[in-house]
User: Fold this.
Amino acid sequence: MPIGLEPNSKIKVLVTDAEYKHTLGIVRTLGQAGYYVVALGYNKRAQSFYSKYCSEKLISPNPKNEIEYINFLKRYLLNNKIDVLLPVGYNSTMTISNHRDELLPFVAIPLAEKAAIDIAADKSRTLELARKINISAPNEYKSINSIIKYPVVVKGIFESGQIKYINSKEEGKKIDLSTNIIQEYVPGDGYGLYALFNKGELRAFFMHKRVREYPVTGGSSTCAKSVFCQELKDTGIKILKELKWHGVAMVEFKKDFRYGNYVLMEINPKFWGSLDLSIFSNINFPRLLVEMTINGDIDPIEEYLTDIKFRWPFPDDMLHLFSNPSSIIQMIREIFDKNAFSNVVIDDFHPNVVQIMNTINSLIVRILNKKLWYPHGKPKLDNYR
Assistant:
């Protein structure tokens, strides 16, 4: 229990990145559990600010402005009692990780060690570690001239980088390899292993399969379902144990349809976009993480509900629908499926109004810029048929 926390006082949790859909999920579930939730964001119209479960909203500098962001947090924590700080987005997680020692006198921060986070945040180092411990990973090309088969995927080394599909040597001439890596294209469905660790020991896990995504060529889940696969679990847990992980993480895979194996794509060293699905499948990672941080540990959880679907209609699934209209039938069926849920909540609808407005804006911008259908380019898959 943090110093100064009275047994009957309301525990206060500061959650960053109020703009994100998974932050909204965290704010809602912690608020429902009775926590005092402070939502921090750099956009005054951040969706989580409008949730009835947000006890206090806090507008900060953008976490990309590292020094300004940390100084803002330090001033706030010095003058306001917060028990647990939960970083959500990539930039806030990395910034808080880099300055953790400056913040720990004021608040508990359930993050892995900086060295582990730095490896997980770097796609190239992550895949190097995977190969070292015999986990399947995509081939990586060091130059355009070394590519032996197209298409390839160009990714930013870190999360903030862009994804682009390259189908020929000519298309790849302008790639900046100082900030990007080139990987072989792995055809297959997307899977994820979510986990909560306490100082290298597993406390909870969960697995999902992407049902729909945007962009349709490969992107964030717009609809996903809970699954269980022992091979997927063992592979994901293996690399997190190697890192002696602490806190939450998601390990992303593709199941290669050519060979049937799981190929590691990257590690998300923080909360992930499809978090709501695990909450509705009875693994409530935000509550478990706060409980573990306050009490020092929790009992391991071994079971969860499978075949649960979760949708994120605005803007994610709407973007998928506009770029792939044939999915409308599947979406209509899910409305009547008792095992399908969404983050549209009637008694906490104000954040959804913000999401709808963002959807309209996003559609207009993408259509005008001709970036709706294939914003990352379209891989030519003739070699995979």
